[in-house]
Specification:
single chain; alpha/beta; FAD/NAD(P)-binding domain; seven-stranded mixed sheet; 13 helices; globular
Length: 468
């Protein structure tokens, strides 16, 4: 006889873990089903040649002082009953948006960005301030709002095309599943998260966050089964009646929360549906290179930038590229350049993320794939030279390790349709599907990023598990 649960959660990503904590805290019998052996989903870690690498995490958004109790991050931690001190958060130094001939710097004090806009775009400062106020007052947690183009909405505040593109660049790279645009609700969330609040990271990286969250879930009695993929969701009378696992066993649950994604979840109910071919499949995927050095970036003269969002083309383009990788824009993350104080990382790290084509990378043979990775790694490293301080561009090569992931990697380890990290451009804000007890949480519910994913898990658990 199959085991029955109050809630079954598909996926041990940050949204699934947060939903599990919230449900278990109120005495619900919860189980998390994860197809892989490592938790974290799109934000995880792995070991290679004795080193541990973060996946996904450049920085956690929404950083605010602990005293700001009404801030979303601090509210989230209270919902999860997690002590903020356990996360050992360290702030960014400062970051910038780098376009040809223009650098717009920002940090964890929003006054810096406002001063930079006034300095570089003096005719836009009044509109920018009105934009900032409108964002503060926007009801972004309203789950019933339809998609609304930010490209149209923002023009009532910002009329300089360059400033518009420089605002969009970091917000799109950190949270848009839509080509060359964003839903206003998502834009507002990301603007607040990055520009109004700020960036930080656990000193130990994503491993620490996952460990804290897992520990909380375990202590509440939540059950987690790894290497336990879901093969099919059986629908009867408008509800999910049984969950068939890859090993053939079954479980049942009053409520099913799926972190698998919109097209991926529907394919679990109807296996004839192919997620990659779905109209809801995302079009945007990424590659990332990781370069490890014996020396720290600050010794090269690159000690001020924590994250650089760059564009070296005449116009910023955020869309699925025709080439395997679009070298015209991207994100450079220097994990060493957070405020570590007297406990710096031992090795220098440079991570570079660029838009990448799923069809190209997943169309290669194994031999072609390895050759393409070697070729594009070198091309990516050369492409970021203009974004580096002049003193660092000729630094001696003390490279000791490298790695690279592509849309093919994302597809293999997450089963995301088309390797789309931000999932479907069609977000389901209330989480509801065509089946009464099946709900989405995580990326395709609509809250993106690490904090957004955890918030999605909490909101969906509150709405569909605890209220029920």
């Amino acid at each position: 006889m199959s085991e029955h649960y109050d809630v079954a959660i598909i996926g041990a990503g940050m949204s699934g873990l947060a939903a599990g904590i919230r449900a278990a805290h109120f005495g619900k019998k919860a189980i998390i089903l994860e197809q892989h052996n490592a938790p974290g989903g799109l934000n995880s870690f792995y070991a290679k040649d004795g080193r541990k690498y973060d996946v996904g995490l450049h920085a956690m958004t929404n950083f605010v002082p602990a005293k700001e109790r009404r801030a979303i991050f601090n509210k989230l931690l209270r919902q999860l009953r997690i002590d903020r001190a356990e996360l050992d958060l360290i702030e960014q130094k400062s970051s910038r948006v780098a376009f040809p001939g223009v650098n717009l710097r920002f940090g964890n004090d929003e006054a810096l960005l406002e001063a930079e806009v006034e300095r570089l775009f003096p005719g836009q400062i009044d509109g920018f301030v009105r934009l900032s106020v409108a964002i503060r007052n926007y009801p972004d947690l309203d789950l019933n709002q339809p998609y609304h183009s930010t490209r149209k909405w923002i023009k009532q505040f910002v009329t300089d095309p360059l400033l518009e593109e420089m605002i969009f660049c970091p917000l799109m790279y950190y949270g848009s599943a839509v080509e060359d645009d964003m839903d206003v609700g998502q834009f507002v969330i990301m603007f607040r998260s990055i520009f109004h609040e700020g960036l930080a990271r656990p000193a130990e990286g994503i491993r620490l966050l996952i460990r804290v969250v897992l520990d909380r879930y375990r202590k509440l009695g939540g059950i987690r089964k790894m290497k336990t993929g879901v093969k099919q969701l059986i629908a009867e009378d408008g509800k999910i009646s049984r969950i068939v696992l890859q090993d053939g066993s079954e479980v049942t649950a009053d409520v099913v929360l799926s972190c698998a994604g919109l097209p991926e979840t529907y394919a679990l109910v109807d296996p004839s549906l192919v997620p990659d071919e779905s109209n809801q499949a995302g079009k945007l995927s990424f590659s990332e290179t990781i370069a490890v050095y014996n020396s720290l970036p600050e010794t090269w003269g690159w000690g001020d930038d924590t994250i650089v969002f760059f564009n070296n083309a005449e116009r910023f383009s955020y869309r699925n590229p025709a080439d395997p990788i679009d070298l015209r824009s991207g994100v450079i993350c220097l994990p060493n350049n957070f405020e570590f104080g007297d406990r710096p990382l031992k090795e220098g790290l440079v991570r570079v993320t660029c838009l990448a084509s799923h069809d190209n990378w997943c169309g290669y043979s194994d031999e072609e794939y390895e050759k393409a990775k070697t070729d594009w790694f070198e091309r990516i490293q050369k492409s970021i030279l203009p974004m580096m301080p002049p003193s660092t561009r000729e630094y001696a090569g003390d490279l000791v390790a490298t790695d690279m992931f592509t849309p093919r990697t994302v597809k293999k380890f997450t089963r995301r349709a088309r390797g789309a990290i931000y999932g479907s451009p069609e977000k389901v804000k209330d989480g509801r599907t065509s089946w009464d007890n099946l709900f989405l949480c995580g990326t395709d519910q609509g809250y993106l990023g690490i904090v957004g994913s955890m918030l999605s898990g909490v909101v969906m658990a509150n709405e569909h598990v605890l209220k029920g």
